[in-house]
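Notes taken during the Thursday session

The instructor put the following on the board and asked us to keep it in front of us for the whole hour. The protein is Macro domain-containing protein. We were told not to look anything up and to reason only from what is written here. First, the residues (170 in total):
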Amino acid sequence: MIKVHLGDITRLTVDVIVNAANAHLLGGGGVDRAIHRAAGPSLEEVCRGIGSCPVGEVRATSAFSIPVKRIYHTVGPVWRGGRLGEPELLSSCYRQCLALARRESMHSIAFPAISCGVYDYPPELAVEIAVEQVQQHLEREGEPKSIVFCCSDAHMAELYHSQLGAYVRR
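Then, after some discussion, the predicted structure tokens were revealed:
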């Protein structure tokens, strides 16, 4: 089941929330800042211990003060025109998070719009990749059973609804 939610990712009832992190994992802006604030100072301490995360990969931590089981920190690509591997790196963010959720037996996961904030990934292209990667994973693996695309504004939510509808019509 795939849902689109308009609101705060830190308030969702899921097993895992995905953080659109920066490479240093130390809390930047947008959803990254919101997750760090909601989780509390222990998250920053653990992230300092991890060190960094390359673009397209994922690192997992406890959720601390957020009532979910895990936070998956993934670093999306900065948009530089699309010819420097950005689509492949963004696809990898989704694939790696979904594969880790399956390995850890997580049943539900919520994604923000990875790379669509200060990293300037065109929202329409990012949403297309997100939906495609999630659909392909579900067709292959079937888990996690519940996937949420969490949006901070109505325009992004509409893009996800539209792309999900287009994917179903294929």
